[in-house]
């Protein structure tokens, strides 16, 4: 029986009528993405055509999912909203605060000890406000959501960028900042610019060593890390129908790495099979009643160029396995062709670790296919050259895989089976005592991101993204340039052997099984639950509302840092060891922008203070400005804020006194997060003006009093020598978002409206 089946039935009862109305208004056949968007309008039945990439639209999501690192700040904010209970079904999943080190049993025990205060806070807040709670060790949020909550045609938002994983079950599932989630928890509409649409037509069929992961690795190569920004990617064609549901989830999951709003697939038989295998036949039965509405109209897939803004064709018969990286998820190299590129770029060819799992590739199918390669190493007497690490996606997957002997295959190769949690994928990997000074090396993993220091905190770790089966093969061979389709290995007897193609199961032949899935149902009436936060806690801190930035404060603004090149949310607010402070805004603010490269000296965490001319760390310099009541500005390059949905990357600068962020371009989620926290998120009207900014500059926002939609702001840049430049700064604020800014934050406005 599914969770929230009555809610799902209600969504489906309105779906055909709303889609029919949308089709009538739009005047043409609809994509699946459009059907879901138009059927989830806040005002109910569609009444107008929305322009893609232009119109801001209010939506009514069906549900919310939060992981423990971001849930802390989201729930701290929700506690200020004045509501007794969440307005839509919501869950919290404890998967980020468990560090991978010794193995599942010891690591979980350590996490329960070190983060008990946070877990207890999340559990009690969940109980009080009617939120479903998944305990530490229950699984990775996106795998658990796919197994329990995702449903075709639904709309959900989540406080993690890889919420998009649920597109594998035909949802429009979108990663957002916690402030967006708070809006919906409080019964408000959720605003999104109506997305553009990218269609990916998949022909042929995957076979041999090629896996669903290779589809998204190829798409990432084509679109790059920002090519999907502002768009939904919709996959279709015979190749799409031939894939498993969890394979579709893998593809949608890594859509976050191309900047896409989300990705999705039309409802098909693989989704029906997965729903029934995960004990949700009631959802499958309801979906089948309206299945023609849960995919695009036939004309769309027959002539996609007429209905999508961009169409990409990929022939799965010709697609080869890929290795993407290092340091960026869109740098693709066909397996077996790495030697020359690695040698030219001085990438270590020796591979030290192969890591399988994360929210991207931790399904039963993924583990079974990788285990088929690992079993060959045992059968063919091969000594593995690299170490193995395995993160099952959920307790249900782990229990079933152990029952069926899959995990034991890895253990016979001395693999470490880590907790059902994120672990190395998000920097929660205690690999080194001193990561900053750790040696240069290469690893291969089936995760989604491979930014510098992402996995283990070592800036010298070159991480390459691959499918679970290719990860297993390369770990066995121990070399980046290994090609399992052509290369031979020497076994313990000195005999040349080759690895056979991987095999596996889409779903467990004996069905899924679990003794304790780790779920706690909230009490019916949470009014008597008391949520306590110790004022002296280092981990948790109750929030104080942000004070609106006054126009007068935007004169004499000082430059904090001009960031050079890639500046992701990992650079703005690092994860790893800093995850422990995600519920304490003051403490976590000590990592603000410490990973950003200063354009003037190419160093990190080393900026000039205009108060005394001395150089120091970014947070220390900013705190000194704050003490003097001086507002600052951050200047950045393209795709600023790429990566995770973490709103801390917006809240921390705001808390410390940064008033504006001026960049060449933004990643979608980060731009929204800045707006929600009452800051100015601006882009250069002329990108070359980035080069005008000097280290000792002062900024005057000359027309901020006239801040209005569709009207650029004028900024006077005063240089140290007294010379001046006038630059234009564009923005995408609408009237409601300007109200957020004027009130100090979106949350301030919610509280005012609820008063």
TrEMBL record:
Its EC number is 4.2.1.3. Residues 559-687 form the Aconitase A/isopropylmalate dehydratase small subunit swivel domain. It holds the Pfam family Aconitase. The keyword Nucleotide-binding does not apply. It catalyses: citrate = D-threo-isocitrate. It comes from the Bacteria. PROSITE patterns: ACONITASE_1. Pathway: Carbohydrate metabolism; tricarboxylic acid cycle; isocitrate from oxaloacetate: step 2/2. Keywords: Lyase, Tricarboxylic acid cycle. This is Aconitate hydratase A. It comes from Halomarinibacterium sedimenti.
